[in-house]
Design a protein that fits this description.
heterodimer, A: about 260 residues, mainly alpha, 2 strands, B: about 230 residues, alpha/beta, Rossmann fold, 4-stranded antiparallel β-sheet
Chain lengths: ~260, ~230
C-alpha cells in the first residue's frame, strides 16, 4: 500500500499542470454557466430545450470536456512515462507492473471525481432553478425531463452511477489499448489505434447483445420511479454490464503490460 | 550462484541481439562485460534486470527466474538516465526509498554529499555527469545483492568518472555483493574487474578470470578488448 501510494502521488505530481489546467477550466466554465442560469427570468426561459442549449451551454461544454479528456489523460500518463524513459525506473522497481498502471488510473480517476463533483453540482443547481421557473409558470412543458424534478439524493445517485460506469468502461478500454501497444515491438501507434477500435467494436456488440444501448434510450434508473404521469421500472443490469466489460478490458491490459510489455 | 544464464537468445525486430549466451557468476564476484556497441551487452543487462525477456533460454538470479522477487535484490544502473526531471534530487531518492525496505537514508545523504549533489536541485537541471553520479547514489543506498551497471561511465566528464569510480571502490561490499559491469573505458575499472567476458555480435567471444587471461595472453584487458572487436 505504501508503494502504491507513492506511485499515486508521483502520478499526481508528474501531471499536475495538466490536471490543474483541466480542473480550473471546468471550475471556470461552471461558475460562468451558473451565473448565466442565476440571471434567467421566467420571460427569458422559453422552452426547456432552448434553456438547455443556450443558458446551460457552458456547463454542458464543461461536462463534455471532462468526459472526453479522461481517456486522453490516462493515455498521456503512459506516453509521457515512455517518452521520458522513466519507464526504465518503473520496470526495475520490485513491484508488479499492474500497480504502476493502477496508480495511473487512480490519479486520473481522482481528477475525474473532482471534476465530476463540480459538474454534477452545477447541473443539479441548474435543474433546481429550471424546476422552480417551470413550476412558477404553470409547469406545462412537454419537454420536462425526469432530471428536472428529481429529488436531490436520487439525482446525485444516478449521476454518480452513470459517471462511475463511464469511467470504468473508458479506463478499461484505454488500459487494454496501452497493454496491447507496449506488448508489440513495432508499429505501436497503429497497434494502439487498432486495439482501441477493436475494443469499442467488441463492447458495442457485447453490450448490444445485453440490450444496453436500446435501454439507454430512456433514462435508466436502478429502481422503480414515479413522477406524475411518468412511471419507470428498470434494473442495474445495464450499468453492471458496462462495468463488467470495462473491468474485462482493464484485466486484459494489465495482464499484457505485466506479462508482455518490454523495453 | 548469483547469476545463471543458459542459452539465452533475444530477437528484436530485424536482428538477433543475443545468440545462445550462457554464463554463470558466483556471489561476491565482479564480472566485467566488455564489447562494442551492438554486441548485446545492454540486452543482457536488461534481461537480468527484468526489463525484457529472452526469446529463448533462461536467466536466473539467486536461483530464481528473473521476476519481481529477483528485482528485490538487484540494483540496476541503466545506460540512460531514468530519473524524473521534475523531481528534486532528494525527492527522487526518497521516492525510490519507499520501494526498498533496506534503503538507508543516512547512507543516501552521505553518498549525495560525497558525490557533490545538491538534494534541493531539480533532476532536470543536473548535467549528464551529475545524473550518472545520482545513479550510483541510488544503487548503493541499499544493500543489494547484485548491482548491474550498464556503461556507468559512458559520456560522463572526467571529474564525474573519477567520483563514480571512487564510490564504486569504497561502497562495494567485497565478497558479499556481486557486480556485473559493462564499459568501454576498460582502463578506468580494469583493476576492479575479477572475471571478464568479451562479447561480439550477440555471442561470448572470450571469457575467464581477468588475471588468468592477462597472464595467459600477455595482454591487458584493453588490448584484448581491441583484439576481440576487430
Amino acid at each position: 500500500m505504501k508503494s502504491f501510494f507513492a506511485l499515486y502521488v508521483k502520478e499526481l505530481k508528474a501531471n499536475k499542470t495538466l490536471f490543474l489546467f483541466l480542473l480550473l477550466l471546468i471550475v471556470g466554465m461552471n461558475i460562468y454557466g451558473l451565473m448565466k442560469v442565476a440571471n434567467v427570468s421566467q420571460e427569458q426561459l422559453g422552452t426547456i430545450i432552448k434553456f438547455r442549449l443556450l443558458v446551460m451551454s457552458p456547463i454542458n461544454l464543461a461536462k463534455s470536456i471532462l468526459v472526453l479528456s479522461l481517456p486522453f489523460l490516462l493515455a498521456h500518463t503512459f506516453n509521457s512515462e515512455w517518452r521520458s524513459e522513466t519507464h526504465y525506473q518503473m520496470f526495475t522497481l520490485p513491484i508488479s507492473r499492474y500497480k504502476v498502471i493502477l496508480a495511473k488510473i487512480a490519479a486520473v480517476a481522482s481528477v475525474g471525481f473532482v471534476g465530476g463533483e463540480i459538474v454534477i453540482g452545477s447541473v443539479y443547481l441548474s435543474m433546481a432553478k429550471i424546476a422552480d421557473l417551470v413550476l412558477e409558470g404553470g409547469g406545462g412543458s412537454i419537454f420536462i425531463l425526469i432530471g428536472e424534478l428529481m429529488p436531490f439524493f436520487d439525482f446525485v445517485l444516478i449521476a454518480h452511477l452513470l459517471f462511475v460506469t463511464y469511467m470504468i468502461f473508458i479506463f478499461g478500454i484505454v488500459t487494454g489499448m496501452e497493454g496491447v501497444k507496449y506488448s508489440v515491438k513495432r508499429y505501436r501507434r497503429l497497434a494502439a489505434v487498432a486495439s482501441f477500435v477493436v475494443f469499442l467494436f467488441f463492447s458495442f456488440f457485447t453490450l448490444q447483445g445485453l440490450g444496453v444501448f436500446t435501454s439507454f434510450l430512456m433514462p435508466m434508473l436502478p429502481f422503480s420511479y414515479n413522477i406524475g404521469f411518468i412511471s419507470m421500472e428498470t434494473s442495474v443490469m445495464p450499468y453492471l454490464s458496462i462495468i463488467l466489460t470495462g473491468i474485462i478490458f482493464m484485466i486484459i491490459g494489465l495482464a499484457m503490460y505485466e506479462k508482455r510489455a518490454e523495453i | 550462484m548469483m547469476i545463471d544464464v543458459r542459452d539465452v537468445w533475444k530477437r528484436y525486430p530485424g536482428a538477433w541481439a543475443l545468440r545462445g549466451v550462457s554464463f554463470q557468476v558466483e556471489r561476491g564476484r565482479v564480472q566485467g562485460v566488455l564489447g562494442e556497441n551492438g554486441s548485446g551487452k545492454s540486452t543482457l543487462f536488461r534481461i537480468l534486470a527484468g526489463l525484457t525477456r529472452p526469446s529463448r533460454g533462461s536467466a536466473e538470479v539467486m536461483g530464481q527466474a528473473v521476476s519481481v522477487k529477483t528485482r528485490q535484490h538487484v540494483a540496476y544502473l541503466a545506460e540512460i538516465n531514468p530519473f524524473y526531471d521534475w523531481m528534486k534530487v532528494m525527492e527522487q531518492v526518497e521516492f525510490l526509498a519507499r520501494f526498498y525496505p533496506m534503503w538507508d537514508m543516512d547512507k543516501a545523504r552521505s553518498l549525495l554529499s560525497f558525490m557533490g549533489l545538491d538534494g534541493d536541485k531539480k533532476v532536470g537541471a543536473l548535467s549528464r555527469g551529475q545524473k550518472g553520479r545520482l545513479k550510483v547514489v541510488c544503487a548503493f543506498s541499499w544493500p543489494s545483492d547484485l548491482v548491474l551497471m550498464d556503461e556507468p561511465l559512458s559520456g560522463i566528464d572526467p571529474p564525474s568518472r573519477k567520483r563514480i569510480v571512487e564510490a564504486l571502490f569504497s561502497e562495494f561490499r567485497f565478497g558479499e555483493q556481486t557486480i556485473l559491469i559493462s564499459t568501454h573505458l576498460v582502463h578506468e575499472v580494469g583493476e576492479f574487474i575479477e572475471d571478464v567476458m568479451f562479447m561480439k555480435e550477440g555471442e561470448i567471444a572470450l571469457s575467464g578470470n581477468a588475471d588468468a587471461l592477462r597472464e595467459e595472453r600477455g595482454e591487458s584487458l584493453s588490448e584484448m578488448f581491441e583484439m576481440v572487436a576487430m
